[in-house]
Structures are given as structure tokens and as C-alpha cells.
Amino acid sequence: MASAVFDLPGHADVLDAARQLAGQAVRTPLLRNDVLDERLGARIFVKAECLQRTGSFKFRGAYNRISRLNAEEKARGVIAYSSGNHAQGVAAAARLVGTHATILMPADAPVAKVEGVRFWGGKVVSYDRASQSREEMGARIAAEEGRILVPPYEDKFIIAGQGTAGLEVVEQLAELGLAPDILSAPAGGGGLIAGTGLAVKHAHPDAQIWAAEPAEFDDHRRSLEAGERVANARLTGSICDAIITPTPGELTWQLNARQLSGGVAVSDDEVLAAMAYAWRHLKIVIEPGAVVALAAVLTGKLDVTGKTVCVIATGGNVDRAVFARALELG
After folding, report:
1. What are 6-17's pLDDT values in tens digits?
2. For the segment 90-136, what is each residue's pLDDT rounded down to a tens digit?
3. 84: closest CA among 103, 60, 99, 101?
4. What is the dihedral of CA 312, 315, 320, 321, to 10 degrees?
5. DSSP state of 214
6. Integer angstrom CA distances of residue 296 from 85, 160, 204, 256
7. Is 55 left (phi over 0), alpha (psi -120 to 50) or beta?
8. Which end of the chain is more exposed for a tag (fewer CB within 10 A), N or C?
């Protein structure tokens, strides 16, 4: 699957995004735990983006994009499509900068995420992710209503905004006198790991960046092995709703193809066990799609022995029933 050539963001764009987000985004903590370090024989740090505004890293990119709209664009409003975390980030950013948002969300989106969008004043339009194209629906509504499309990852400002999480990782580890050997993050469309890779690789060129994905939805892992973008066979069927995408993004792939060291895939049961582990030992709630990087190290699928490692826990917007299932199995 060939990729087009895009105007790619760079490290300077991540720094610019950090200035734009100052006073708006939370500088989320790096968490560590003695039990986790001893179990893995490594220094493990968890970047708790579940404590970010709106409960996920998505606020970073959404605000960096929407805060740059001019007065005429704000009057027209924005539209986005998302299973929930980008949706909440867009709704919050829209309200904060004085515009209005319509959000396309799959009918099976977690209730907590739908409620989050509505809290911030976003209008929710449901669709069937198995039979309807959110991209086509979004383009149609944008044309009919004159709204500005804010994509979940295929945007220079979105990627740069997400990259500020990586910038913080570099700064926070440096404050401890450390440098990352490995960083692993969940990969859906690839915006977070692309932006984070820009920040980490700029400071530490030898650091490894690993994508973590759900089993059978590991399009980044398989794309890296194939040397080109490949698609998943299905669009549904994983507990990790936040990172189920058809294929790596075209724009994000231009960065990830050269920045990523590889990818690993974890099962739903491994995800649930990691959620329970994070609650028990780190005292945080992480949603399924957000915990796959932690699951990858806990299962040993990503070998971290003797390394300084950061995994990004990208969000905490999980329904009660799913979290209860995690605690029962974990």
C-alpha cells in the first residue's frame, strides 16, 4: 500500500506545541513501583496520561490544533470522529477556545466516553463502525455544515501536540539523571507514537520506540515487517476500542516507518491482567487500549531486562463493567 509524501512535523513543531499547551495540558507524572521493577529486572516508568485533561493524551493534539483556528473558523465549528478519547479532547478544546463540536462516535463506544463528550458540550452522532465509513460521514457533514475537520491523527498539529507527552518523558527522566533505553506506546492510527518518537529520538537517537497493539489488530507490527502499510482483516472484535483502526495513517506512517524499532501484540486477557496490575501496584485506572504497552512488558513480549523503560498509559476512560471484569480476572 503506497504512501503519499506529506509535510511532516519535526521536533521544532513539538516544542511549539508545548508552548501552545502551556497552562492547558497537565504535565502528567512518571510513576514507578518497586514490585514492577523487581518483577521485570528493569527500571520501569509509566507515563500516566490517564490523568491528563479529559482522561487521555488526546487533549494535547486536539487543543494544539483547535486553538489555532481563526475567528471565522471558530464560528463555523469543528467536526471529528473517534471511539471516544479524541472525541472528548476535541469537545473540551472546542469549548475552551470558544467554538462548537460535532463528534461521530461508533454505536459501541463506551458510555463513559459518550458522557464525557456531552459534558464538554459536544454533539454526538452515532455510526456503525463495521458498516459505515466515519471518514466519508465526516467529510459529508463538514461540507454540508462548513465545519473544520479535526482528524484523530492525520494532521501535523495533532501529531506535534501528542509529541509533547514524549517531550515531558525526556525532561522527567533527565531530572532523575536517566535516559530512556526503550519507550513503548499504544498504536492505533499512530499519532501519539509518531509525535512521541520525534521528541525522544531527538534527545536520544539510540532509544528504541516500540508500538504496542491488540492481537489481530497489530497493523503497525505487520506493516513494519512488510515495509509498507497493511490493513487489519477486521474492524471490531477487541476490548481495546480506543486503538482499533483499519491501517496505520498515511501521514503517521511516514514518521513511524523510520522511528519504530518494532511492534508487539497482546491478547484481551493480557490487557485485562495489566489493568488489574496497574490498579493494584500503581494505583491508577487505565482503559484497555491504553494499557497495551504495559501489558507488553508484563508478559515479556517486549524484553526490557536491565533497561530504563517508559511505557505510556494513554487513557483511563473505561466503563465500570469492563474495569470490574479486569479486577475479577486479574
Report:
1. 689 999 999 999
2. 999 999 999 999 999 989 888 888 999 999 999 999 998 788 888 89
3. 103
4. -60
5. E
6. 22, 25, 22, 19
7. left
8. N
Pairing mode of beta strands 308-313, 182-186: parallel
How many CA atoms, within 13 angstroms, populate the side-chain half-sphere of residue 180? Answer: 33
Give CA angle at 277 (186, 111), nearest 5°.
Answer: 60
* DSSP bridge pairs for 210: 184, 262
Residue 305: exposure state from Cβ atoms within 10 A (0-12, 13-18, ≥19):
exposed
Q: Which residues contact 176 (CB under 8 A, 6 or more apart)?
A: none
The pairing of strands 78-81 and 101-106 is parallel
Contacts of 17 (CB under 8 A, 6+ apart): 60, 64, 157, 160, 161, 163, 164
Q: 283, 291, 287, 286: which is closest to 311 by C-alpha?
A: 291
Residue matched to cell numbers 469537545: 91
Distances (CA, A) of 101 to 13, 77, 104, 299: 25, 6, 10, 40
User: In which residue are the cell numbers 529520538 written?
Assistant: 201
Cell of 322: 469492563
Q: What angle do CA 93, 97, 98 make, to 5 degrees?
A: 115
Helices (H), 67-188: 71-76, 85-97, 111-119, 134-145, 156-175
Phi, psi of 263 (to 5 degrees): -140, 155
**Structure confidence at residue 147 as a pLDDT band (50, 70, 90):** very high
CA distances from 324 to 7, 107, 319, 329 (A): 44, 22, 9, 9
Between CA 82 and CA 61 the distance in angstroms is 13
Query: Does the global pTM surpass 0.90?
Result: yes
Cell 476490548 locates to 239
